[in-house]
């Protein structure tokens, strides 16, 4: 379960036009939510604050006001414990893949949960096979296609069997074929999934949809109604 209690994010930065002064910008208005559904989608325009909302869930970003609790833990005080149980997949897999080969990258994710080297190697092969990457254990990461990289990023995160998965626009850089593969993988997960997406068809398949605009959740409800609200708002721009 994910709970936001008046959680907001405000950032300050130096004013380039007035030395010694700062500018304040609200990224996310104080927001209260209780998210219990299995599949939750977050939609909104670029820069609306939806990624900030997603990052609050596992403490990649901490609120400057209010509180966020994930799986009963306060993300500001128990960030490492939260992240051990909550997976996060970024839009660009190159920002997430850090090891030279596909097998090494998944092994890195398993280093704490599977300490035995031989057992970890076997587990790596099992995980990669699940994601259609069985033939790429030794493949250099840079040699993989964009779709294969995103699958590898997902494999590394899901190898740890997170209870919640936050996916921040995981199909944006993919073509239709790979987008369908990733969508199907996310749909079949046992974990609760919070999906930030521009794919309105994917949003309509969720159990609940949040529409974020200008740093605020402006709609929270049934998928079709949420998508209609968002499309209507975009048509007025």
What does this structure look like?
With 237 residues, the protein is an alpha/beta fold. The chain has two domains: 2-85 and 162-235, P-loop containing nucleotide triphosphate hydrolases (Rossmann fold); 99-161, no CATH class. The protein has helices at 50-57, 79-83, 102-110, 117-130, 146-158, 176-187, 200-204, 223-235; strands spanning 2-14, 22-35, 39-43, 65-70, 73-74, 86-89, 164-168, 192-196, 208-213, 216-221. The strands form two sheets. It has a six-stranded mixed β-sheet with strand order 6-7-8-3-9-10, sandwiched between helices. α3 (102-110) crosses α4 (117-130) and α3 runs parallel beside α5. The mean pLDDT is 88.
| Fraction in helix | 25-40%
CATH class bucket of the largest domain = Alpha Beta
Secondary-structure element series: EEEHEEHEHHHEHEHEEH
Record the strand order, biggest sheet. 6-7-8-3-9-10
Beta-strand content estimate: 25-35%
How many distinct folded domains? 2
Mean pLDDT over all positions: 88
Poorly predicted residue ranges:
none
Number of helices: 8
For this structure, what is the CATH homologous superfamily of the largest domain?
Answer: P-loop containing nucleotide triphosphate hydrolases
Instruction: Name the overall outline.
Output: globular
Number of strands: 10
Assembly state of the chains shown = single chain
User: At the third CATH level, what is the topology name of the largest domain?
Assistant: Rossmann fold
* Helix/strand class: alpha/beta
Instruction: Calculate the terminal CA-CA distance, rounded to whole Å.
Output: 35 Å
The assigned CATH architecture of the largest domain is 3-Layer(aba) Sandwich
Using the CA coordinates, give the radius of gyration: 19 Å
């Amino acid at each position: 379960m994910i709970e936001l209690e008046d959680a907001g994010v405000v950032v300050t930065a130096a004013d380039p036009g007035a030395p010694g002064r700062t500018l304040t910008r609200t990224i996310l208005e104080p927001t209260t939510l209780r998210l219990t559904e299995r599949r939750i989608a977050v939609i909104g325009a670029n820069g609306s604050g939806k990624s900030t909302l997603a990052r609050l869930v596992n403490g990649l970003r901490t609120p400057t006001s209010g509180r966020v609790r994930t799986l009963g833990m306060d993300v500001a005080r128990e960030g490492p414990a939260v992240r051990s149980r909550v997976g996060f997949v970024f839009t660009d897999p190159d920002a997430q893949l850090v090891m030279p080969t596909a097998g090494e990258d998944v092994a890195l994710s398993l280093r704490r949960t599977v300490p035995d080297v031989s057992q970890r190697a076997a587990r790596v092969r099992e995980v990669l096979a699940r994601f259609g990457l069985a033939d790429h254990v030794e493949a250099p990461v840079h040699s993989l296609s964009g779709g294969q990289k995103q699958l590898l990023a997902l494999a590394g995160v899901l190898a740890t069997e997170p209870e919640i998965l936050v996916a921040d626009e995981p199909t944006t850089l993919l073509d239709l074929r790979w987008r369908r593969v990733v969508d199907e993988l996310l749909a079949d997960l046992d974990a609760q999934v919070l999906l930030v997406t521009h794919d309105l068809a994917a949003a309509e398949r969720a159990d609940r949809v949040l529409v974020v605009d200008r740093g605020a959740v402006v709609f929270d409800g049934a998928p079709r109604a949420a998508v209609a609200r968002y499309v209507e708002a975009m048509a007025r721009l």
